[in-house]
């Protein structure tokens, strides 16, 4: 079961807005959590938060979990005070219709809604059409454009209404599970490492701007200069209707974190992770990835002279939606496994493939 302080940390993260480029509220939560046990914490000018335990140790390992979520950006306030927006990250636009939204302004959150004209008023052609983001607007219940401009500025970020709902069987739903849970795992793993006696230098990084091109992982990996790296992100759970296991693998929520194999993964890192999982009775699932990953492991693997990289992922249903579903058990098991891996490292560890 997740400890009380760890659950509080997760709740705070999931209530902190962090669309790519606007991660500061979530990063403040991360800094608060690591303060009691991190030997060294810094925030670089890109916005990455880097927390370290035993920073002079050998080898150096970087744990990366991106804290940014998909969002919207205000690009215009029209003549009637409705907000027109552009996408930050990859959206299924139909997820936006009928949602409660929050505009994060300099003076505080402004609540609004996204909808469209009622079904009664739609033509048959309207009902068949798939809208684009340019066709949508946010209604913040103002009287006119002047009132809207007093509240909101062009460039303000927008998210779904935030917050976590606990479900049966120790599962939870929230927007932004992708990938605040990754940020949670790498910082929780660092906390567990701090309770042991690591020989390695362990650097947990809450990276920024993954959703728009793995940008924070590129800059922080260059700065940390690790020999090893583990990225933590979500992956698609396939245990719900309409998803083909033959294409996407058999991945279930609550059955353990997923360890990936493939060209993006150092085979020795993978074997050590699976061996430690067996040794410590930590449930894991195995996934196959035949290309460079679309997450921070991609950027880490090819940083500088190359990094021996692993990928630990959390099964997630309904990714990039307001109701992403994960298992709290999978989070804790991922953190424990990564901590065991870090504590197993010695200066003579060899990850040559």
Please write the string of helix (H) and strand (E) elements.
HHEEEEEEEHEHEEEHEHEHEHEHEEH
What is the overall number of helices? Answer: 10
Percent of residues in beta strands?
25-35%
The oligomeric state is single chain
> Which residues form runs of ≥5 with pLDDT under 50?
none
Order of the strands making up the biggest sheet: 1-2-12-3-13-16-14-15
What composes the largest sheet? 8 strands, mixed
Rounded to the nearest angstrom, the radius of gyration is 21 Å
What share of residues is helical? 25-40%
Mean pLDDT: 97
Structural class: alpha+beta
The beta-strand count equals: 17
Envelope shape: globular
Termini Cα gap: 36 Å
Overview of the structural elements:
Strands 1-2-12-3-13-16-14-15 form an eight-stranded mixed sheet, sandwiched between helices. Strands 5-4-9-6-7-8 form a six-stranded antiparallel sheet. It has a three-stranded antiparallel sheet with strand order 10-11-17. With 353 residues, the chain is α+β, with helices and mostly antiparallel strands. The protein has ten helices and 17 strands. Helix 5 (177-194) crosses helix 10. The longest helix is centred in the middle third of the chain and has 18 residues, at 177-194.
């Amino acid at each position: 079961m997740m400890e009380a302080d760890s659950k509080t940390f997760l709740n705070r993260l999931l209530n902190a807005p962090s669309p790519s480029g606007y991660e500061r509220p979530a990063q403040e939560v991360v800094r608060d959590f690591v303060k009691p046990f991190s030997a060294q914490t810094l925030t670089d000018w890109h916005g990455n938060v880097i927390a370290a335990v035993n920073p002079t140790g050998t080898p150096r390992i970087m744990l990366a979990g991106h804290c940014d979520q998909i969002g919207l950006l205000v690009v215009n306030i029209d003549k009637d005070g409705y907000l027109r927006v552009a996408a930050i990250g990859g959206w299924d636009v139909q997820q936006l219709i009928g949602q409660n939204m929050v505009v994060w302004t300099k003076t505080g959150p402004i609540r609004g809604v996204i909808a469209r004209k009622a079904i009664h008023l739609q033509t048959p052609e309207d009902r068949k059409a798939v809208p684009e983001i340019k066709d949508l607007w946010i209604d913040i219940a103002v009287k006119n454009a002047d009132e809207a401009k007093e509240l909101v500025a062009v460039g303000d970020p927008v998210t779904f209404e935030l917050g976590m709902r606990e479900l049966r069987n120790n599962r939870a739903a929230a927007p932004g599970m992708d990938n605040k849970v990754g940020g949670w795992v790498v910082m929780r793993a660092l906390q567990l490492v701090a309770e042991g006696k690591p020989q390695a230098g362990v650097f947990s990084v809450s990276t920024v701007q993954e959703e728009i091109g793995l940008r924070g992982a590129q800059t922080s990996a260059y700065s940390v200069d690790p020999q090893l790296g583990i990225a933590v992100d979500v992956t698609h759970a396939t245990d719900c209707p309409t998803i083909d296991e033959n294409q996407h693998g058999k991945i279930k929520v609550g059955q353990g974190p997923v360890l990936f194999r493939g060209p993006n993964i150092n085979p020795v890192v993978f074997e050590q992770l699976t061996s430690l999982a067996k040794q410590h009775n930590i449930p894991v699932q195995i996934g196959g990835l035949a290309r460079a990953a679309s997450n921070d492991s991609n950027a880490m693997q090819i940083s500088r002279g190359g990094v021996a990289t692993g990928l630990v992922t959390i099964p997630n249903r309904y990714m990039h939606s307001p109701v992403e579903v994960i298992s709290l058990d999978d989070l804790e098991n991922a953190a424990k496994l990564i901590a065991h891996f870090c504590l197993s490292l010695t200066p003579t560890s060899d990850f040559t493939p």
